[in-house]
Amino acid sequence: MLRFLLVPAVLIAWANGDSWGPYGEQCLVGKEQVYNPADSFSVKWYNIDLDEDPRTRWNEVGESHGKQILAALDTVKMFIALIDVSIYDFLVEFAAMGVPNLPEPYHQEIIGMAKASGLSVGEVALLNLFYEIKKGCTSIVARDKDGEIYHARNQDFGFLFYWNVTLQTWQQTMALKDLVININYIKDGKVLFKGVTFAGHLGTLTGIRPQGFSISTNARFGSVHENIYDFFVRGLTGRSFLMYADRDVLTKCSTYEEAYEYLTTVPLLAPGYFILGGRQNNQGAVITRGPDGAEHVDTMNQTSWYVLQTNYDWDKKVIYLDDRRGPGHDCMNKLGTKNVNLAGLFQVLSSKPNLNKATVYTSVMHVNAGTLESFIRDCQNPCCCSWRLWRRVDANRSWTIHTLTSTVSVRRPESVKCEQMRSGTGYFLIEEGKVA
Ligand SMILES: *[C@@H]1O[C@H](CO)[C@@H](O)[C@H](O)[C@H]1NC(C)=O
Ligand SMILES: *[C@@H]1O[C@H](CO)[C@@H](O)[C@H](O)[C@H]1NC(C)=O
Ligand SMILES: *[C@@H]1O[C@H](CO)[C@@H](O)[C@H](O)[C@H]1NC(C)=O
């Protein structure tokens, strides 16, 4: 896969110790409060009755969001077309082939979702797969001065896909904003747990088991895609998709301890980070998962009053043009335990660059109160992390580069000198996280 990325010169300047300029870190702690619970009303709630037939339980969601699910799928198609459009049909077929291998209830639910939304089973399956492999995020669990636990997350999605030059935003991020829904999962007539998902996606990306625990999943780069491939080719391998493990833990476990045990041991198809929150004191952990078990766990303790995770390992440097970890910590330290609550964590996650052009939604959770609120986000210009991807436009291997201000075509990216990029557009060419 192509590893060339372009970054605004201002971002590079920061790496040299200068300011990022208008794209810089902007912690909103101490500024006017941006949290307004009423803003969460635009994310619709649905009931999914787990006692109902899996083939029909998603009918309402599928029927009311079919068009928008198709629009999101179109952005996946656009992305695949950057490589080769003919792969798309193959991938849909490939995804359809794997559906019978899915564990229940997901297997039956995908069939039901396809029927209700008007898409093919392969298309719904492909979309679900894309959610598994392409996401960024910031998750935080924090304790207030009385030992009460709060959990918040930004879901970033769609970066590196397709930049809409007119609207100055990621095309897929935009499409996904129409798909964010909250769900009450009902069992025996009562709410068993609550979750946030994209309509058409049967897993849970963020969720809360009231009086139990809260969870969010972040992507870990460098995924083991062979495992996913194996799943489709060899059938059930006893390993779980990350997105379904989330929903499974919310279904099966009722306490923080049970959830911790499950999340550190469940065999996975791909690595990832589970961020787990509980009810009080030290119940907050970032579990760094490999396919076979936990590779590292960060837990809150007497002195460590919060855990924060983006998309980089505890012992690895961040890619400097995507440093959401450093600014996140700075902002949390400004917040302090005395300001930890839903509004405080929302303020941190509204601070750039934790809020960025790829942020689809923010959710805040409070287990003891059973609270889950989700907010659609929009990062106003100037807003950072607008990465660009070299885009192959024709058989001659000529490429188009979208920048914040212009579009450039070049014949052979290999031959482009850093200086040309600099003088031509104010953008740099980087490879593997280094300035080329
Ligand atoms: C950008 O978004 C607008 C509004 O959705 C759309 O009309 C336009 O076609 C998009 N541009 C590209 C290049 O996709
Ligand atoms: C608390 O956690 C931090 C961060 O993981 C660690 O550096 C520190 O040693 C821990 N302190 C105690 C008392 O365990
Ligand atoms: C490839 O380059 C040749 C020579 O410049 C040109 O005639 C041809 O149209 C190009 N092909 C495409 C698909 O752009």
Q: What would a concise description of this structure say?
A:
With 436 residues, the chain is α+β, with helices and mostly antiparallel strands.
CA-CA gap between termini: 17 Å
- List the total number of helices: 12
Helix amount, in percent?
25-40%
Helix-strand category: alpha+beta
Rg value: 21 Å
Q: Which strands sit side by side, in order, in the main sheet?
A: 2-7-8-9-10-11-12-13
Domain Choloylglycine hydrolase/NAAA C-terminal: 137-279
GO cellular component, one term: lysosome
Enzyme class: hydrolase
Active site: 137 (nucleophile)
List the helices and strands and how they pair.
Elements: E1 4-8, H1 9-15, E2 45-49, H2 59-83, H3 87-98, H4 106-117, H5 121-133, E3 135-143, E4 149-157, E5 163-164, E6 169-170, H6 171-177, E7 180-187, E8 190-198, E9 206-209, E10 213-219, H7 225-234, H8 242-252, H9 256-265, E11 272-277, E12 284-289, E13 294-299, E14 306-309, H10 325-335, H11 342-349, E15 359-366, E16 371-376, E17 388-389, E18 391-392, E19 399-402, E20 407-410, H12 418-425, E21 427-431, E22 434-435
Parallel strand pairs: 2-7
Antiparallel strand pairs: 1-17, 1-21, 3-4, 3-14, 4-15, 5-6, 7-8, 8-9, 9-10, 10-11, 11-12, 12-13, 15-16, 18-19, 19-20, 21-22
The structure holds 2-acetamido-2-deoxy-beta-D-glucopyranose (3 copies).
